[in-house]
Amino acid sequence: MIRQRPRRPDETGFFNNRRIWKQAIYSLAFLSYLCSFLFFGIGTAAVLHGEAIESASLDMLVAIYFLLQVIFLFVLSWFVERRRHNLPIHFPDRRGI
To answer: Which residue range is the domain that position 38 belongs to?
Structure first.
């Protein structure tokens, strides 16, 4: 009879599914990217129509924030994608020295 080894608690469950986390991060990055375009458009339109420069500059700052958030989310997705490698460590034989 083949015995299955019991799974560790950290190997099971919804929160340990890396594919779901990566898709969630990509969805947030896409929404942040769209928001940055929205705020760049609002800020540009405000400047072109000669409206309040203060609110236009604030819109541009918010757009830059969303772009920085996209960069952060892609870096985070790289860390989520990394796998743990269980490679053997090779020590040289120093007994003959």
So the answer is: 17-79
Give the span between the Cα atoms of 80 and 82, in whole angstroms: 6
CA diameter of the chain? 82
What is the model's pLDDT at position 67?
Answer: 92
pTM for the full predicted model:
0.64
Which residue's structure tokens are 């469950």? Answer: 13
CA dihedral 45, 46, 47, 48 (to 10 degrees): 50
Structural domain total, the chain: 1
Instruction: Give the angle 52-56-59 at the CA atoms, nearest 5°.
Output: 145
What's the distance, CA 84 to chain centroid?
18
pLDDT band at 6 (very low <50, low <70, confident <90, very high): low
Contact criterion met (CB below 8 Å) for 77 and 32: no
